[in-house]
Specification:
236 residues, alpha/beta, Rossmann fold, 2 domains, 10 helices, globular
């Protein structure tokens, strides 16, 4: 068994989900509720990280997040993960600053997309995820096309993520507008899947909401984390 370290707080709702779902997945795999995985959470200030990203201070982001990773290693973690997609904008810099192996949400998502033979995906997430190519580029390099909302739609979605979803608020009016936007993009671009590229988006978009595959990158990373805890190492 390996001990997991979670860099949490990015955001709080996702951190709670990761903790609960990793435990449930672990127990399901073992076939018992009488065992729990050992893990440690280091919760960081997501809003401080956002300010650094707004100022394009990626070095400071890497320093800040890697400090959390190093704390987890000192606490005995064998591997770690960030329970948010946005800080993966500096993943390589963060990994270079810590000896703790980190499970990339981009890598686990791409591996899953290849297994499903998906070809044209809509990417939703924070403005940092949608306006940069750290997530989309590996998919495109693998021959998977990534479609993005318009700039106006990206700005609107980022605001709703930060002001509502990151605080656990699911507004029916927001969901209605989001579904209209997503369905319009699906139909206009002949898409076969929608990437929930922010780990809070599953709060407002469920698999039954859409006519195409709903690509929950948090769920995929959680499953990979359980595999690694149990010794089926996906880290290289």
């Amino acid at each position: 068994m390996k001990k997991l370290g979670i860099i949490g707080g990015i955001g709080p709702e996702a951190t709670i989900r990761y903790y609960n779902d990793i435990i449930k997945g672990y127990q399901h795999r073992l076939g018992t509720t009488q065992s729990l995985p050992e893990l440690t959470i280091e919760s960081i200030n997501m809003y401080h990280m956002f300010k650094l990203l707004d100022a394009d201070q990626l070095t400071q982001v890497a320093d800040y997040v890697s400090d959390a990773a190093n704390h987890l290693q000192q606490a005995g973690a064998d591997f770690g993960l960030m329970c948010g997609n946005t800080p993966h904008i500096a993943f390589s810099q963060i990994q270079a600053r810590t000896k703790l192996p980190l499970l990339s949400i981009v890598d686990t998502a791409l591996a899953h997309a290849k297994q499903l033979h998906l070809h044209r995906l809509l990417l939703l997430g924070t403005k940092f995820t949608m306006s940069n190519d750290f997530f989309s580029r590996p998919f495109q390099d693998a021959g998977i096309q990534i479609c993005l909302p318009s700039q106006e739609e990206q700005d609107w979605l980022h605001l709703k993520i930060v002001k509502e979803l990151e605080n656990g608020i699911v507004n029916p009016a927001t969901k209605l507008q989001l579904m209209q936007m997503v369905n319009h993009l699906i139909n206009d671009n002949d898409l076969d899947g929608v990437v929930l590229g922010c780990t809070e988006l599953p709060l407002i978009i469920e698999p039954t909401d859409l006519s195409v595959a709903t690509f929950d990158i948090a769920k995929i990373q959680i499953e990979a984390a359980v595999n690694t805890i149990l010794g089926n190492d996906v880290l290289h």
